[in-house]
Amino acid sequence: MSELPEYVHDRVFDAPREMVWRAWTDPKLLSHWYGPGVETVIHKFELKPGGVWLNEMKWGAKSDLSKMEFQEVVPQEKLVWHHSSTDSNWNIITSPMMADWPRVLLTTVTFEDAGAKTNVRLTMVPLDATDAEIACWAGAMEGMKKGWGSGFVVLDELLAKLQAENS
Amino acid sequence: MEAIGYINRQSSLDAVFAALADPTRRAILSRLAEGEASVNEIAAPFEMSQPAVSRHLKVLERAGLIEREIDQQRRPARLKAEKMAAAVAWLEEFRAFWAGSFDQLDDVLVSMKLAEKKEAKDE
Questions:
Q1: Which residues does A40 contact at the CB level (< 8 Å), separation at least 6?
Q2: Which CATH fold would you assign to the domain B2-92?
Q3: Which residues of B fall within a CB distance of 8 Å from A35?
């Protein structure tokens, strides 16, 4: 099997690298931004290889739990963790959203100076994935990167037609 | 019939993504985006036997990405947009998780900078 496709998310932050690193690695700051539009509670945060970050995201009565196991911690340069969904006892489970979504995503975050700003690159790739997980991930990343060919491009058109037919 | 319930609806996206992982199946979908077509018509541009194309069509049909006429000899296949739309929406959500978080991080960094300036001033 050729190399697995990666999810890549690049972002420039208008702050020095030292400050961006602190915002990623101080749980008090991290809980302020991790998880859009939800209340994030960090139950445990051990910033060292083998340490865990136990994360809860709440919206209304709903709650989403995940566990990150740190693999590498290189101050102001690099963070690597294994990212998984968990049950209420912090045991790794398949995604409640999708059975064949990879259970463990190897997540790498790198920090680089860009003048007075900081470039951050986040990548995710499945770890020890089953064939079904790899197929699911590969299809998803194919869509993420370049769409699914013209079938993707004409989607809006098709949906508009469907709506017109239904109305 | 469409499965009822959150889990069923979501889990069917696994099949959609798996179906889309294959380049031939993506090419077939592109062909069908231009309009419905029979197995023969779909097979023509590919160096592929009709049974092989039929197998791909079955995968796409099971994933809910296409539908086929039952009562016609030609059994033309046509694209079903809803599943594709659901898959696209799911991917958008995945990306929006990080994009939205990073927007919030921008705000956190602004507050951190302000706090530092204030500290420097107070010293």
A1: A30, A31, A32, A34, A55, A56, A57, A58
A2: Arc Repressor Mutant, subunit A (1.10.10)
A3: 97, 101
Q: What is the DSSP letter of A75?
A: T
- Mutant choice from A121, A142, A145, A148 vs B, greatest count of B C-beta within 10 A: A148
Q: What is the pLDDT of residues B51-101, one digit of tens each?
A: 999 999 999 999 999 999 887 778 899 988 888 888 888 888 899 999 999
Beta-carbon separation of A148 and B20 below 8 A:
yes
Q: Are A71 and A80 in contact (CB under 8 A)?
A: yes
Task: Provide the residue ranges of all domains of chain A, joining segments of one domain with +.
Answer: 7-166
Summarised one tens digit per residue, pLDDT across range A37-53 is: 999 999 999 999 999 99
The answer for B 47-76 residues in CB contact with A (under 8 A) is none
pLDDT in tens, A142-158: 888 766 655 555 566 66
Query: So what's the architecture of A7-166 in CATH?
Result: 2-Layer Sandwich (3.30)
